[in-house]
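Translate structure to sequence.
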């Protein structure tokens, strides 16, 4: 017979927490009614919403895939990494068939080369200035074009040579000739620098726009409730303040006025996307879900402070980039590669965390002027021209 809890005990259990009419849910509802007009910010993996309270319609801003330049910059950032994945594919293949004409890595490399060639052909100053038109990167179009062309040209050459010299697609060869070349004259700008630079360029726009958007709301940060909801990046990433850069971004945008204890991360909570927003009734229901989740979490904190006044209380102090290697100079290549390794090797980290603290702090310290941000691997770098084959 399947075990069932004793009915009397189960009734007591539900009376406190799990029943819709439980004491815990009733307290949460009282808190919701008290703070019905308090602003609520909800950040998901790609969008951020402000629910002003008192039934007013939400304001929503996007910061990832649907925004200008994000796909373009991220695609270029991924190109060098794709070669490293190809090397791993080759390494794992059976030795007898590893370099056969129909090997999976050769086919994938050939397809990657087609995509890179198309990007190189499409890339132009006019494209970046008139079509992609990222406001925060205005004036950088010529250099952006040079970065993309250089990355594609170098990668295409490596892919082409690897088809004839498969041993170039080993990690030793890629490190010494592509990612961190021993001969700087052979490859003046390492691909490590390129990956870091493109991460930084994409994140500058996110911080610039979302920071401006949040400050324009003129919020009472002492009453604002903040929820970082749902999945951010990898399924294992972004579950703490130190590993989810939206926490640091929102806190700095508030001028550090947001009490850190009013920001909760709920990786398993519902998410939303601008591309698939519910109707007005659906948004209202989603807001109620978020408010209930926030208040239900807060209830335990408030009760603990009243229940245990003689014990030292817990005070959360934010750490923006826990354990992230520091920069000794603006173009410290050891720090660049150390941060890239950290965000790839630590499953708890969002990939953008390799640049997040640098970009967020610079923008908020300089009055949100993206032109004054120093981006390692970009700002002080000249990308040489490489003639097409």
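Result:
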């Amino acid at each position: 017979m399947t075990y069932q809890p004793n009915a009397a005990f189960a009734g007591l259990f539900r009376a406190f927490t799990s029943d819709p009419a439980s004491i815990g849910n009733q307290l949460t509802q009282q808190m919701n009614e008290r703070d019905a007009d308090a602003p609520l910010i909800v950040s998901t993996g790609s969008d951020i919403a402000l629910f002003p309270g008192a039934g007013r319609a939400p304001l929503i801003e996007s910061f990832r895939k649907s925004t200008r330049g994000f796909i373009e910059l991220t695609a270029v950032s991924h190109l060098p990494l794709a070669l490293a994945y190809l090397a791993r594919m080759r390494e794992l293949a059976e030795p007898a068939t590893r370099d056969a004409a129909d090997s999976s890595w050769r086919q994938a490399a050939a397809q990657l080369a087609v995509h890179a060639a198309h990007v190189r052909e499409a890339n132009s100053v006019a494209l970046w200035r008139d079509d992609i038109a990222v406001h925060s990167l205005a004036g950088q179009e010529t250099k952006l074009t040079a970065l993309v062309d250089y990355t594609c040209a170098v990668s295409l050459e490596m892919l082409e040579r690897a088809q004839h010299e498969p041993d170039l697609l080993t990690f030793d060869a890629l490190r010494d000739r592509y990612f961190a070349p021993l001969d700087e004259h052979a490859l003046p700008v390492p691909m490590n620098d390129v990956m870091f630079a493109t991460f930084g360029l994409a994140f500058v726009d996110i911080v610039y726009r979302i920071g401006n958007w949040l400050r324009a709301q003129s919020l009472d940060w002492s009453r604002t409730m903040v929820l970082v909801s749902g999945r951010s990046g990898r399924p294992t990433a972004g579950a703490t303040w130190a590993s989810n850069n939206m926490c640091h971004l929102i806190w700095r945008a508030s001028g550090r006025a947001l009490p850190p204890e009013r920001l909760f991360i709920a990786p398993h909570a519902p998410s939303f996307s601008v591309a698939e927003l519910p109707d007005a009734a659906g948004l209202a229901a989603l807001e109620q879900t978020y408010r209930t989740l926030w208040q239900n979490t807060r209830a335990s904190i408030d009760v603990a402070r009243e229940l245990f006044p003689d014990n030292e209380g817990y005070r959360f102090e934010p750490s923006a980039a826990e354990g992230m290697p520091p920069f000794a100079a603006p173009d410290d290549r050891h720090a660049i590669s150390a941060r890239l390794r950290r965000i790839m090797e630590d499953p708890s980290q969002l990939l953008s965390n390799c640049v997040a603290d640098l970009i967020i702090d610079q923008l908020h310290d300089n009055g949100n002027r993206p032109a004054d941000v120093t981006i390692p691997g970009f700002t002080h770098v000249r990308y040489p021209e490489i003639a097409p084959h």
